[in-house]
Structure formats: structure tokens, C-alpha cells
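Notes continue from the previous slide.

Worked example: a multi-chain complex. Inputs as given:
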Amino acid sequence: MSGKQFFIDRYAQLGWSYRETKPRQALRINLSVTNQKPLLERLKDNGVLLNKVPFLDSGYWVSRSRVSVGATAEYLLGLYSIQEAAAQIPATVFSELNGKRVLDACAAPGGKTVQLADLMKDTGVIAALDIDRRRLSALSNHLERCHVRNTMVYCHDARKARRLKMQFDRILLDVPCSGNFAADKEWFARRTLRDVERNAEIQREILSEAEMCLKEDGEIVYSTCSLEPEEDELNMDWAIKSLNLEIEEANCAGGNGLTEVFGRKLGISLAHCRRIWPGDTQGFFVCKLKKRRNSSD
Amino acid sequence: MIELIQRFASKVSAKLILNPKLLVEKEGRFFLLNKDMKSILRNDFFYAGSYLGKLKKGKFFPSFILLANLATGKANKVIVKEKAAWLFVCGRDLFPEGIKEVQGSRRKGDFTLVLNVFGECIGFGRILHDLNSTEAGVSVQNVSDVGDFLRRER
């Protein structure tokens, strides 16, 4: 239950023909710190040529650069962040974010936390959790560099988020996952189906806990960079059957989520998820979930 | 806690008004909360709100958020040319030929914020010789610069 051919055969069964891909380097402009046009001109003057990512408001692909985009003065001043294009999608899927109470349950190294703060225009509050204390320094440096002011960071397991004793309007679950071959050259050699199933189980635990911390009518955006349906559509199918959640249309780039996986038929609403097979971006999966109102209301 | 931060602000001739009720300290690091955060922050936080700086061996080290904040108002400022700005970010000192404009103190021994031509604060330094003089050599000694974000990752 492992090896390159095993996984390639699975992708073929899901309707995608495997091909070698290399995701393009991308960055995201922090609009609460700067304006796009003058920054693009500055970067161009420094020999950094960018192309707009068509499905993102402030995301750009790096076409050519004389310098490392992770070491320019503009980067150090927090005017932009280096963030893979598909990874910029989840935070944009939420409806209204201004003034909201938001949980970023698996936050380090903080690319999506900073993006959320940017989209929230530094209003409201973000609680950013990560289980690994060593990764919190990277997250904190990211927040300081980008002048984020609305975030509180805790060393905390997302599976015990209720201990915060808070209810949230929005929850981002960019859960730990098996990753994908486009972002990891050794992926096929390293991964087994057992790994995928183990990760899927942890993801369900995180989902269950998140649902408990979500206000009625609140939204969860669930995302992985895994191509394996156990971590994506099958987990979402489980979530709508086991938790008080329903799937809403994710208004973003990507193809429809799968409604049939290895002969198993799933709920029709799974089509509202977004699945991105590797190409210009890495592989990605996004689903927007809404907490149902109690029927007594 | 508030005195430490305001003492640093006065070193660069800046004024800083902070609400003491929104200031918190965690293991020698100081944070300014927003109002929404104040009532919900738990004691076991790692980072919160705006990071203002840290106290290490009795000395206050300002954050880049604090420096940027001070640079928006009246303060000692040295605006530097493009090449000098890049060298400063790489940890180098400033020489007279790299300085485009001086605002506030020019006096030897004073501290000054260092800004690039876009008005963005890239760090701060100490004036090593009177900036009115024609003396050659280092004018502003680099104390801290935003290149520190890269050095922290090593």
C-alpha cells in the first residue's frame, strides 16, 4: 500500500493523470501594510518580475528575480510574504471577516495567520494555535515582520481547543496532512496509505473539536495540501454526517470535489469543495463548512 | 514597564502615549493588546497584539513594530540613500555620503531612527559624531536593523 505506482494508480481512478510538476514560487502582498502598484514598481526596479495569479487578489507568481525574494528590504519590512499560490486560497474563502473572532487552529509558520489579519484589516481577534513550541518563534517573527496587531498565539493542541473557553465566528483548519509529491521530491518514497489514514484520523479529531468551538452559523474552512481523498472528501463526508456541519460552496479556484471515491458514492454537496491537482500550484483541497442552527431556534 | 518603553522613545526624541491597561508582559517581552483581546487573553499566551520589545540583562530592545510606530511621528530620523539603506539592513554602519536628510538631533551620542527613501523605518542607530561636522568615518553606528529577521532564522 505504498510506492509511486500505487499512488499514481489511485490518482487515475480519481480521474487525474499523473505528470511531473513544479509549483511556481509565489508571494502575497500585505495590503494592510502597503499598496500593490508602488510595491510592484519597487520590486521591478530591483529586478523582481511578477505575474498576477489570476485567481487571487494580491497573489503574484515570481517570473524572474535577480535577488532572493526572501531577502529584500521590502520582504523584511513586511510588505509581502512568500506564500505558495494554492496556499493563499483558504483564508479568502470565508465570508465577512472584519471584527470577527477567528481561530487558526494549526497556525505555524503563520503565512495564513498573517493573511487572515490582512483580510481582517487588523480588526477583531485571531487566536493562533500550534502544538510545536519551536515553531511558535517562526510564527511570532512572521507576525512582527508584517506588523500584525490582532493575534494572540498559544502553544496548544488543536484537538484541545475547547480549553481556550472561547467560541469563534470563523475557524481555519489548515490541518497537518500527508502533503503531496509536487511539494516534496521524496514524497512517493516516504508515504504509505497507513500514514494517510493516520493523518485522516487526527484531522477528524481536530474537526470534532473545532465544531465544538464554533458559534452557530459560524464557518470552518478546512484545507490540506494532500491529494488523498481519505484526508479530503472522505473526511468532509464524515464531517457532514457526524457533526453539526454542512458544506457550502467554496467560491474559489479549483475543480469540484469528488462525489465518488473508489466506487463509494458520497453526498452531492461534496462537489462544492474545491480540489486542485498539481500544475502551476501544488496540490490542494479546500472545503467551506457552516455550523447548522439548532432546530429549536 | 511603561517607563522602560517611554524611556526608549525619549532616547530618539519621540513621544509615545500608551494605555497602561492594555500593556502586558510575558517573560521579559512586552505587548500592547487591542481592546477586544484584553478581556479574553489567557495567561499562558506566547505572543499577543503588538510586540513592543524585550528586556534582556536590564536593557530594553525595541521591536520593529515599535520603531515603525515611533517613525510615524516627530523623532530623531536619518533618511538614507538606497545603497546605504541596503548596507544598513545588512548590519553595516552609516557613512556621511549615504545620508540624504537628518531630522531632529544631530548630536554625537544621541540615538536616531534610520529610514529609507520611502519613509519606512529600517532600524535605529547611535550618532557617532556630530552630523553637522565634516568629519569622515562612521556617522551612525548600527544598533538594530530589519535584517535581524533573517539572522534570527539561522
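Summary box: Chain A touches chain B through 29 residues (CB under 8 Å). The mean pLDDT of chain A is 96.
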